[in-house]
Design a protein that fits this description.
InterPro entries: DUF58. Keywords: Membrane, Transmembrane, Transmembrane helix. The chain crosses the membrane at residues 18-37. The termini are far apart. This protein has helices at 13-17, 22-41, 45-62, 218-224, 281-298, 321-332, 364-375, 396-418, 433-441, 451-459, and strands at residues 18-20, 70-75, 84-92, 97-103, 110-115, 123-130, 135-148, 153-155, 158-167, 190-206, 239-247, 250-255, 302-307, 315-318, 354-359, 379-384, 422-425. The strands form four sheets. Strands 1, 4, 5, 7, 8 and 9 form a six-stranded antiparallel β-sheet that branches. A six-stranded mixed β-sheet has the order 14-13-12-15-16-17, with helices on both faces. Strands 2-3-6 form a three-stranded antiparallel β-sheet, with no helix packed on it. The protein is an alpha+beta fold and 465 residues long. The chain has four domains: 13-62, no CATH class; 70-167, Immunoglobulins (Immunoglobulin-like, Sandwich), CATH 2.60.40; 193-247, no CATH class; 250-459, Rossmann fold, CATH 3.40.50.
């Protein structure tokens, strides 16, 4: 049985990629009409005018480019400096010009026509926008199409994107930060309460086996042995200076990524409609977590992370710049997985660690977890990251609903403060009346202060449990 196969000749890619533009189509139509008019009227002038138009159109069609150029979209490494997100358009030309339209969420579209380089090499064009948002978000969409032969021929257009870009939060500068109740590390930058090899004097004690010779205090030894039984100049006992041992602090950052609300109350049910210049509660939480993580890691402490929006194991505490890089990526990618689910038990965190919760406290679950950890002996600090809402243009029903939510939230934060949990606000200034009532209910009044002052006040409160 003969195997008969039909072989089709490869079609010319120019027939699929290049088409006449509006200018070429108009010249062809005008040339044909003039040709018909001259033939019907018996005049040579219309035919003489039509011939160059038709011959030029045919010449443009026959000498159209052999191939279509390629357009790529890539992110830039420095795209997050100074709240700017950038990308690069790469174009390997096939025609003479490239027509692009760049669009981004919350910004007007920009149209441009780019000329091909003289050496026909790749041309790279940078694009950037200013944004206050963080996290992994689809940002740039580029619609493009090439032009050739004085823009008489155009290629079939294409679309690149939307391109997902991870916008890293920016860490702020902090001078002093609080420490846990007990330091459990064997070495570190802080003075613990146990005796060991440190700098601060603890007491003076008799020399015992294991003490270092350089710790002997010869002045105290001579004074204590001056009236001994052995007579003057006889040393019967040696005295050493004992110091407090140094240790590092264990810190667990708890990031509540279940809520993402902005200043506009009408966008609370749809975070995708929040403007680019308005940071959300999740953006504040990412910034707070990264700022605290960098400050503790630069001091030599160990920092871990727990994301309440994901049902996964927490990131264990560790130190070093490698841990800071891992935390930066995890914090930037923090977002809920589907619909938030209630936890049956609190996440297991290291014993004795300082727990810092960054949340909006719009529900009871975060407050219950904070009270459970505080009851287990942890020092817990609640960081309020809810942005100040814009109430001037809010509808009446929406404003009434917000006031109910604000009163519930006020009672929730007041209950945390009464239970011994220290509550601070991540915002630098607060003018909302309800937030003022929350601050007055706090026992230490830390939310009345600026953020660095509040953290410095907490750092000087070494409460024993």
């Amino acid at each position: 049985m003969n195997d008969v196969r039909s072989i089709e000749a490869p079609s010319d890619p120019r027939k699929r990629d290049w088409w006449p533009t509006g200018g070429l189509a108009v010249s062809i139509i005008v040339g044909i009409l003039l040709m018909l008019f001259g033939m019907l009227s018996g005049r040579l002038q219309p035919i003489a005018i039509a011939m160059p138009l038709l011959l030029g159109s045919a010449w443009s069609w026959l000498r159209r480019p052999q191939r279509r150029g390629t357009v790529s979209l890539s992110a830039r490494a420095e795209s997050t400096n100074e709240s700017r997100v950038g990308s690069t358009i790469g174009w390997r030309p096939g025609g003479e010009a490239l027509r692009v339209r760049v669009s981004a969420p919350g910004h007007r579209s920009v149209d441009a026509v780019l000329a091909a380089p003289s050496d026909r090499g790749e041309r790279r064009i940078g694009i950037s926008i200013r944004t206050a948002r963080t996290g992994r978000r689809p940002i740039f969409t580029v619609d493009h199409g090439e032009l050739a032969d004085l823009q008489l021929m155009g290629s079939t257009g294409g679309t690149e994107g939307p391109m997902p870009i991870t916008v890293l939060p920016r860490a702020e500068q902090l001078r002093e930060v609080p420490l846990p109740y007990r330091l459990q590390g064997l070495t570190g930058p802080h003075d613990s309460r146990r005796a060991g090899d440190g700098n601060d004097l603890r007491d003076i004690n008799l020399f015992t086996p294991g003490d270092r010779l350089r710790r002997i205090d010869w002045r105290v030894t001579a004074r204590r042995n001056s009236g001994g039984f052995g007579g003057p100049g006889t040393i019967t006992d040696l005295y050493v200076r004992r110091s407090y041992a140094t240790a590092d602090a264990g810190v667990m950052l708890v990031l509540d990524s279940r809520d993402e609300v902005g200043p506009d109350l009408t966008t609370w049910n749809d975070s995708s409609s929040i403007a680019e210049d308005e940071p959300t509660s999740l953006d504040h939480a990412r910034t707070a977590a990264l700022t605290l993580a960098r400050r503790y890691l630069q001091a030599g402490d160990r920092v871990g992370l727990e994301d309440l929006g994901r049902m996964r194991r927490p990131m264990p505490p560790a130190g070093g710049m490698r841990q800071l890089q891992r935390l930066t990526v995890r914090i930037a990618l923090a977002e809920p997985e589907g619909e938030p689910r209630a936890r049956r038990r609190a996440p297991r965190l290291p014993s004795g660690a300082l727990i810092i919760i960054c949340s909006t406290f719009l529900d009871d679950e975060t407050g219950k977890l904070a009270q459970l950890w505080h009851g287990a002996g942890h020092r817990v600090i609640a960081v309020d990251v809810l942005p100040e809402p814009e109430l001037r243009h809010a509808p009446g029903r929406l404003l009434t609903a917000y006031r109910i939510i604000a009163m519930d939230r006020h009672d929730r934060l007041a209950e945390l403060a009464r239970s011994g949990i220290e509550v601070i606000s991540w915002r630098q200034a607060e003018t909302q009346p309800m937030a003022g009532r929350i601050r007055r209910s706090a026992p230490v009044g830390l939310t009345d202060q600026q953020l660095p002052v509040a953290l410095a006040t907490l750092s000087r409160r070494r409460v024993r449990r």
